[in-house]
Amino acid sequence: MTTTTNSHTWIGKDIKRREDPDLLTGRAEYTGDVKLPGMLHAAVLRSPYAHARIVRIDTSAAKKVPGVHAVLTGREATVVLDPLPAFCAEPVVEHAIAVDKVRYAGEAVVAVAAESRYIAEDALELVQIEWEPLPPVIDVLEAMKPDAPKVHENLPSNVVYEHVFIFGDVDGDFARADHIMKRRLRWPRATAAPMEPAGAVCKYDPPSGRMEVWSTTNMLNYVGWLIAGSLKLAPHMVNFYPMYTGGSFGSKHVTSKVIAIAGALSKVTGHPVKFMEDRIDNLAANDAQAADRIYDAELAVTKEGKFLSLRLHAIDDYGAYFVFAITGNTNMMSQISGPYTIGSLENGIKAVLTNKNQQGVFRGAGSDVGNWVLERLVDATSDELGIDGIELRRRNFIQPNQFPYKMPTGNVYDSGNYPGVLDMALQHANLDYWRQEQVRARKLGRYIGIGLATCQQRSTYSATEFWFHNPGPATGLTTTAESVRIGIGPTGGITVTMFSPFWGNSPETVVSQVVGEEFGVDPTTVSVAYEGTSQGLPSAGPGGSRMTVMLSGAVQGAAAKVKEKMYKIAAHLLEASLDDMEVREGRVWVKGTDRSLSLTDIGMKAYWNKFDLPADMESGLEGSFTYDHPYTTAPSEDRKDLGVFYPIMGHAAHIPIVEVDIKTGQVKFLKYLAVHDVGTVVNPRSLQGQIRGGIAQGIGVALYEEVRYSPEGQNLTTTMNDYLVPTVAEVPHIEIYHHVTPSPFTAYGVKGGGEGGRMVAPPAVTRAVEDALKPLGVKIDELPMTPEKIVKWVTQAQAKTP
Amino acid sequence: MQDEDFVTIRLTVNGGTHRLVVEPRRLLADALREDLGLTGTNLGCEHGVCGSCTVLVDGQSVRSCLMFAVQANGHEVMTVEGLARGGELHPLQQAFWEKQGLQCGFCTPGFLMTAYELLQHNPNPSEEEIRSALSGNICRCTGYQQIIEAVQSASQAVAGASATVPSGTGA
Amino acid sequence: MKPPKFRYFAPRSVEEAVALLVEHADEARVLAGGQSLVPLMNMRLAHPDMLVDINGISELAYVRPWDGGLALGAMTRDATLERDTTAAARLPLLVEAAHCVGHPAIRNRSTVGGSIAHADPAAELPAVLLALNAAFEVRSRSGSRTISAQDFFKGYLSTDLKASELLTELRVPGLPSKAGSAFVEFSRREGDYALAGVAAVITLDEDGTIADARLGLCSVGPAPVRPQAAEALLRGQHPGDEAWDAAATAVITGLDNPPSDIHGSADYRRHLASVLTKEALASAAERAERNR
Questions:
Q1: Fold annotation for C7-53
Q2: How far is C275 from chain A (nearest CA, A)?
Q3: I need a surface site. Which of A9, A102, A265, C68 has the fewest CB within 10 A?
Q4: Domain with CATH 3.30.390.50 in chain C
């Protein structure tokens, strides 16, 4: 279901994924599968207190357990370990193993390396610790008070960052508005919870000072050198191997903690050491808990329902450390005004530290929250002004002829057709039928609700969001480049090498299809390889829905270099003009003739027949290309304009239909429809899988998932019995359609689609439940909508109704 | 009947018999992964919720994180490595590939083994029956739909394959 | 997350198992299906010095007709019970409840005896067996004794079973042929521990009034609950919303200290107990009506 004709041979085809045979047979090697001679296994003792001083640690009994090679406290570890890398400007220091003080329940206190994980855990049970408990700071509003106990004594306050960004005449627009929609909204702390927890195997070689690292880290070449710094090693002496990764969803960008622990223990013991988080480690201390925000949100609207200005003020509970600073809040400023022509906006951010595991990145990276908040206000407008939600959205959509569209923060939306996407969704939604069903059901005391959300899904990050919230001139603008190397061997076979690992996406499939397109060969004949950092070209790794865009661009660039050489060889051998060369069906042709050479002919010459090549040509046939982010600009010094930082903009419309059992509070899906526009689609089935998986996670945060802490700061959701990831029983059949508006800035017009499902489902499902409960007058301001909350809302609403 | 620190057990795994010396506390999952090198079986939670470590013991799906290796002594274990025969993917693996019923692949062996057991008992399951059978396996990537489609497709492939067997063979 | 060390014994007979339990009563724990015990060990929340693995005692795995009802060997797997045709014919309530236990791979291992002996208040079978007036046979060196379900469940994870005794058989009396029964539960996700679950049995008189009603609830107290006041109230009533409402009110009035956790507060569980009691009674009565 596309709006443009596909003129490509391989791009847009549902080829079977290249990654799958190894994954399906159990042959793919994940970090936990690595086994080295003499390898030890690590386990970590975690703090039972949310906030406490470590008075004394006695590890003597633990050290005596047969098979134990090292027992390391945080203080002892400082000999081999510096603090972990942090991407914040504020002086928030985190150690892989806590030094002197713990700041959340679950923080690592002692690490053991032993001959098996069993023995390591035996030893941990014998560690004696004398604690001095400190008052924990758990509630974010309490934490903001001036007299609250401090999570970090060196900071003036637990409010670690505070700033109000203003773009345009917000006050003026609010003064001009006929109506102001106002909501206090609460987005819950969720977490990525990939099926494979994070982990690392480190092998240190003392004489050479080299370390080899097999880990779940996805950003090998991007941040590997920083982790080397924490391990007090020369970065070029550390080789990070790319591993198959069992899901990340943002949680494995860095995972410096597991590498630091395995690395420190390897340095201390002289053995290779494996440290794999178990599920409790992961849920308690993975640093991938996500946005936990209270919003005071306002939308200024005219009486016709035209959105004038958006004013948001967030309090965000960051937990005990601040590794990515306020990235989740800056990220969402790339699409904060959504698909709508909102003229001005204000975004106030208070980042607060508490005694919880810190925030990291989780699919959507804060833009998920922004979409939910904006769509809540849009729905509020619809209800309060009595304008149908579909009509209201149409009145405010950016129109297809307005692209590229510069939105108030300075980011640019490359392309889009929002009315087209909505039309496509409505065409398949059969809303007339469902509205009738809704009426019929209500007469029987059943509550059916129809949801709608129309949201942005930004893709292809550049890195300014990591620092533009800090004042000062823009320096060191990066293009978060991504590289590939293409080699054509003497027999004409094509090998592509990538420098970012597999994390559950489909990089091998994407590069195979693009290579197939570029050279006119069957993608399944392309050999795909990954390289570690010792051989690494610039790469930033998966994240921010970028790999399809960046790999497509890199392959196209590398292919152009290889083709240039092929054409020179072919033109030389066929005695034709260089300008007349073209490649198709795996051969180089003289255009308009039947004269051609196969890739094998050319490869053989390039490798072994130097004297048949054009004069001065180097032997061999390969090309590397580093593809820079296609469109990044610097923020202005006053930050009234944040620059272009997330321009490859996708869009989606979701229509879920639910039934709410008001007696138990249970929500069941009757239908789920999604239309996504992420530009040119490389592999439709793989994209559908990404969208469906994202929607499942969006349903999770809407109905099930929340990291919960007790008032004392105990994490109450450290098992999969308690952190509720939806199962096959909770996720419905999801109908997906693709709308295609190519990007003008990327290879083939592709956009990233990896996060869209999770960014759009929460507002759509929220609206569906709210619509179901509309006859009772229930308004929904918080997630997850648990059965207990739904029963409570219904009861309260019924009590108000006479 | 042993009260020593280690016990000797015999495991038949994917048709081959192995003699192992293990502590009684060694989880079946670790015996398979670490002692026999069968790392296709993955550990996702180690408390019996996620289903990633599902293997078959005497043809029945079990959580290999909730069973001690010693309890499988003398029994037949089947893991994901036992599905493909002579380089030929099992119809379930083929169907998961075709329908893309996987992304990161970590939970996939557990789903394959659970689905294998389902199709043994019920060669032509309905969508409801598939959902019920798979409800103890968590996948964080796919949203499940393409897994369901894969199981449906495999059941048809298996049914189709047996339909082509000449009559009179008892198939 | 790996279990601590233990000594391991795998007796092949009840006698052998009982002898081990008697000899090591202080340190031994029985390993049945292991689906509750092993996670606790993996998390090091349980540290048994010794496990007596009774999975090899084949004489303990059976479902047999018994006195109009059923006798279940303690090592009968939930998956076996769920598919047993005799059980489905005689006591469909048991089959319905067994199907609600965890997930297929869990039920392939979990046992009816393990569920009873572990006595997790969130488990389905204890509540159902309580409603069905089951009795449990336990063996010790001195012989055997039979404990009624009513006397067996003492409190949170606590039973009348002694450390030196082995639970061997569950005896479940049959129901009148005209009885109808139903089990309903509510959990956050399918297969999760229920936030509340209700088993109901209704027998109707010739005139359509309720001759006998029985209820058993899980997850709403420290132990499974048999709300006898509600049962008494139902006898002689006409089936219908009025009776169900009154019974539900009596059920929640009688609840003592329902658990409260992140998945459901005590109040919400009370609310669910009421909703599910009505639902289970209505469904049981409808089935009884069909059998009449």
A1: 3.30.43
A2: 7
A3: C68
A4: 180-291
B19 in contact with chain C, both atoms CB, cutoff 8 A: no
Rg of chain C over all Cα atoms, to the nearest angstrom: 19
Residues 6+ apart with CB under 8 A from A642: A165, A330, A333, A409, A410, A411, A464, A468, A635, A636
Number of A/B CB contacts below 8 angstroms equals 174
User: Which among A25, A33, A719 is the nearest to B47, CB-wise?
Assistant: A719
Pick the residue from chain C with its C-alpha nearest to A43: C1
> Both tokens of residue A353?
């530290």
Give the CATH number of the domain where residue B113 resides.
1.10.150.120
In tens, the pLDDT along C184-215 reads 999 999 999 999 999 999 999 999 999 999 99
Within 151-170 of B, beta carbons closer than 8 Å to C belong to none
CA distance A513 to C177: 66
* Subunits close to A (at least 3 CB pairs below 8 A): B, C
Name which of A21, A195, A685 is nearest B100 (Cβ-Cβ). A685
The segment(s) of chain C belonging to CATH 3.30.43.10 are: 7-53
Instruction: Give every CB contact of residue C205 below 8 A, 6+ residues apart in sequence.
Output: C211
CATH fold match for the domains A293-400+413-461+646-800 and A481-627: yes
DSSP notation for A438-504: HHHHHHTT-EEEE--EEEEEEES--GGGGTTTS-S---------EEEEEEE-TTS-EEEEESS--SS
Q: Helix or strand or coil: residue C249?
A: helix
Residues in chain C: 292
pLDDT mean values, one per 10 residues, chain A (802 residues): 64 96 97 98 98 98 98 98 96 98 98 98 98 98 97 98 98 98 98 98 95 95 89 95 96 95 98 98 96 98 98 98 96 98 98 98 97 98 98 98 98 98 98 98 97 98 91 84 96 96 94 97 97 88 93 98 97 96 95 96 96 95 96 94 97 98 98 98 97 98 98 98 97 98 98 97 98 97 98 94 67
**Does the CB of C192 have a partner CB in chain A at under 8 Å?**
yes
Q: Is C42 on the interface with B (CB under 8 A)?
A: yes
- The reply to whether B31 touches chain C by the CB within 8 Å rule is no
Query: Are B111 and B130 in the same domain?
Result: yes
Q: pLDDT digit string (tens) for A690-708?
A: 999 999 999 999 999 999 9
Q: C-alpha A287: how far from its chain's center?
A: 14
Shortest distance between the Cα of C196 and any Cα of chain B, in A, equals 20
User: Which residues does residue A457 pair with via DSSP β-bridges, in sequence order?
Assistant: A650
Q: Which CATH number fits domain A481-627: 3.30.365.10, 1.10.10.60, 3.20.20.70, 3.30.540.10?
A: 3.30.365.10
Q: How far apart are CA C266 and CA C256, in angstroms?
A: 10
ipTM attached to this prediction: 0.96
- Of 3.30.420.280, 3.30.465.10, 3.40.50.970, 3.30.980.10, the CATH number of C58-172 is 3.30.465.10
Second-level CATH architecture of C180-291: 2-Layer Sandwich (3.30)
Taking alpha carbons only, the member of A200, A444, A463 closest to residue A325 is A463
Q: What angle do CA C103, C105, C106 make, to 5 degrees?
A: 65
